[in-house]
Amino acid sequence: MPNQLKDRFLTYVKKNTRSDEKSNTVPSTSIQTDFLKVLVEELNELGFSDVKLNDKNSFLTATIPSNVEHDVPTVGFIAHVDTADFESENVKPQIHENYDGNDIVLNEEHPYILKTSEFPNLKNYVGQTLITTDGTTLLGSDDKSGVAEIVTAGARLLADDSIKHGKIRVAFGPDEEIGRGADLFDVDEFGCDFAYTLDGSVVGELQYESFNAAQAVIKIHGKNVHPGTAKNTMISALSLANEFQNSLPRFMVPEYTSGREGFIHLVKATGTVDEAELIYIIRDHDTDLFENKKALVEQVAEELNNQMEQAHITVSMKDQYYNMAEIIKKDFRSVDIAKTAMKELAIDPIIEPIRGGTDGSKISFMGLPTPNLFAGGENFHGRYEFVSLESMEKAVDVILKIAELTAEK
Known about the structure:
This protein is of the alpha+beta class and 409 residues long. 30% of the residues lie in helices and 22% in strands. A hairpin with a 3-residue loop joins strand 12 (263-271) and strand 13 (275-284). The longest helix is centred in the last third of the chain and has 20 residues, at 287-306. The protein is globular, with a radius of gyration of 23 Å.
């Protein structure tokens, strides 16, 4: 199994599947469909049943039939195929067997080095097989580790009838990285009692609490005149943008928050004297604090507008997803089974809130409790991404153990 898992993962990451936030198609890029079609062929060859690529939501689903006669819950495993907004063409994974705990030179031609001083988490993987980038691209472990683990676990179940399990459903979907992949997910067609996303990081992660999330787009309309005659006439959209940003709490940002602390994060700023745009993401695990942060953004805009003869600032607010704990706490079977599975495999469960979201955040609110499991990678979304083969193997083991536990009378 280790070689199958490694080879499968290496094959997957070499295929560019980057999503595109600017696109309005489903999926947002055709290269994701290309990859999903290859997965269709692989799943059919491995013996999965009901292999279907839905042209409406671009989710690929398939079934591993039950091999027990008694009724048991149907469990699902889900991963996304797209990668983040970082260079993803011509990915060249590097394999470092029996990692010695020292700095890793990713590329001799560029100053790209995985330094233990900057990434002390590397020391957790001494003696293991690490897979890194060559520094010029991301790796794509987020979430092709999850894809490879689910396919590998499914292949194992199909090949070994001694592992008793109920009906297993798997799903691979697009556009998670741009926050809309699960919008069209068909929970009824998937037909599960509960599910898991394989989209976490280090071994042991079991996450059922995510951020509440919103996006705020601030449009600022200025008045541009010649600077030589600008007194009492010019209204600089750039100056108003600066004032808007400085009116928000200085320390309510990602670089000063952790744990359950939320933030208001400026992710993009563009503009001229005539017009400017600020894009924020707003995050908090607590619903009331989340609403307060959204209200604060509206309040800052209102106060600045009130200082002028007419309003020059508009706010467009859109909720993106909600804290899945609100749903999962109503049916805790998925979490309890995953905890038991990890403990039986001598893995210490790490139960902490996600400082982000997964497809499970949306799918849970569609009526299917879907916590998140570790997939093994670290340093996602950039040139310093890496994953341990041994971590991925443990994720496969957890999938298999969950399948077994779910099938017990």
